[in-house]
Amino acid sequence: MAGLADDWEENRQTCVDVLCAYLRLPYRRDPGQDAPQAEQLGFRANREVRHTVIRVITVHLQDDAAVSWQGLDFDFTGVVFDGGDFRGARFSGGTVNFSDAGFSGGQVSFDDAAFSGGTVDFSGAEFCGGTISLDRAAFSGSTVTFERARFSGGTVEFSAAEFSGGTVGFGRAVFSGGRVSFSSGVAFSGGKVIFDGARFPGGAVTFADSAFSGAEVTFNGAEFCGAEVSFDLTTFVRGTVHFSRAAFSGGAVSFDRAAFCGTTVAFHGATFSGTVINFSNPGDWSLPPAFPWTGPPPRGVRLPKEQGQPQA
Predict the structure, then answer these.
(1) Where are the domains of the chain?
(2) pTM for the whole structure
(3) Dihedral through CA 174, CA 180, CA 184, CA 185, nearest 10?
């Protein structure tokens, strides 16, 4: 089918649609070691074909592909991923749809992938196991949405990723388990990154060693209620969200209407030298954050006027 797509340009999208349709077929999960051997072999054979389809698509999304499929649409709606390699893929146009997909095991890699145009949709996706890696991924002009995504297990890594343009949205996402990391050199230097309405009832989310130097990052209406939340140098453990060693040197970060209730939110170890970071209109300030200063806040940090000084 891939060969036909390469040779038949006017119907290349149709051929790609067939490959994606195969991945969307109902997929039985690993039956386990106690299942009959025939059932185990059938599962492994099916999984190998599915992973091969993903590899074939990725090869055609490389900059040096003999025949490029960049700019085509890829529909992975509801696909169950228990592994797969999108490393180095260039999503430079068209629509790539992972909505309601399930990432339930194995390793799925988007390392060194580039999202520079079109739309990539992870809305409603569930990350409940395995490792999803977006290390060194570059977001420079596309719209990428994780709207309503559920992070309940496994690990999602954005280490050293760069957000320099376009929009990446985590609106109304729920971080209830597992680990999500925007750390180890992640740079927010342009575009918009949106966590509006996101909820952090558990799990572990980190922005450690990240740099905010030009992007607009919003946590408007987010709920930090029900888990210990830390933006400092504390140990990374389940049930935390922290910005340890984060550097705020430009752009804008907004916590408008965010609820700080029943959690410990600390910014110890973070530095503020140019970013406008806004807490002035919280939805709930019953447990104010703890900041790394004892006197007036740094220029650009806006606190609620009527709520008094935050905890030291």
Answers:
(1) 74-302
(2) 0.87
(3) -40
